[in-house]
Amino acid sequence: MTMFAAQTPNVLAIFGHPGHELFLFQWFTQTRCQFNCFTDGSGGTMADRTAYSRNVIDLVNGTYGPVFGLASDKQLYQDILNGNANRVTAWTERLIETALQLKPETIVTDPFEYFNPVHDLANSVTDIVIAALSQRGIHCRKLVYPNEYPRQFDAAAARITISLDAQQIAAKQIVVEGYEPLRHELARLTQQQKLDALRCETLFDDPVRLHAIPAAADTPFERVHYEDYGRQMIANGLYSRLLTLDGHYRAFVASVIDRSLSIELCESRS
User: Fold this and answer.
1) Residue 110 in contact with residue 143, Cβ under 8 Å?
2) 29, 62, 78, 172: which one has the fewest Cβ atoms less than 10 Å from its Cβ?
3) Is 19 left (phi over 0), alpha (psi -120 to 50) or beta?
4) Mean pLDDT of 168-189
């Protein structure tokens, strides 16, 4: 254990899935971070992988937050499709309470890449937490890292850049390869040449969007990948319903915003 373990975290991580901490492994060794992730990573043929993330978090002397693998991906997709924001609102309120206690300098979250709704939801909930802090006069920085689309991020614009030396690269490689449930993802990202984060970790400032989520066509990401993927799955008889940005996600997030921020605003006035 380092001295960081006994100190209050100065970074709050809010991720959609366990395993995302691997992208920033070296940076996390230099911070005092409390980690949160929405789902347990299970879905399709995947099983709960939170134990693997706990091993990684222990390596960087991190702590665990109140939201850590509390649902499956399928459960969260169904919540969004059905417009049932109860679960995510409860998570958001817990995260707001935690952030008010910690007063973190930085909240790091998944980028809003229109690739996976769970990733995007982590970003949207982070916006709500930051807005709730702002209502109390507490300001913190929001940072994201390149996940699925590293080429869409301008390295020159990074707020933080950590170039790993040979020893650090080797150590990170061991940790990444030891995360057995994600070996297929490691192979895919390697084949697609999307593993810059093994050698260089970058973090970028990210705006607080709340209700102002732009259309994908107005961003460098251009398309909503999970809609395209969902259409393929429906055509193959594997999905019965299509989750869309405009038909489901926006309204779902709006409900969480309205419920979480109205509660927080009322409490701040009491």
Assistant:
1) no
2) 78
3) left
4) 93
* pLDDT, tens only, 95-122: 999 999 999 999 999 999 999 999 999 9
Q: Which of 28, 209, 226, 269 is nearest to 117 (CA)?
A: 226
Quote the strand ranges of the chain, DSSP E: 11-15, 33-39, 63-71, 106-109, 141-144, 160-163, 200-205
- Average pLDDT of the chain? 93
Report how many domains make up the chain: 1
E strands within 18-135? 33-39, 63-71, 106-109
Here the tokens at position 135 are 């209502």
State how far the Cα of 128 lies from the Cα of 252, in Å rounded to an integer.
13
For the chain, how many residues are written? 270
| Order of all β-strands in the sheet with 160-163 | 63-71, 33-39, 11-15, 106-109, 141-144, 200-205, 160-163
Can you give the three-state secondary structure of 187-199, one letter per residue?
HHHHHCCCCHHHC
CATH number at residue 35: 3.40.50.10320
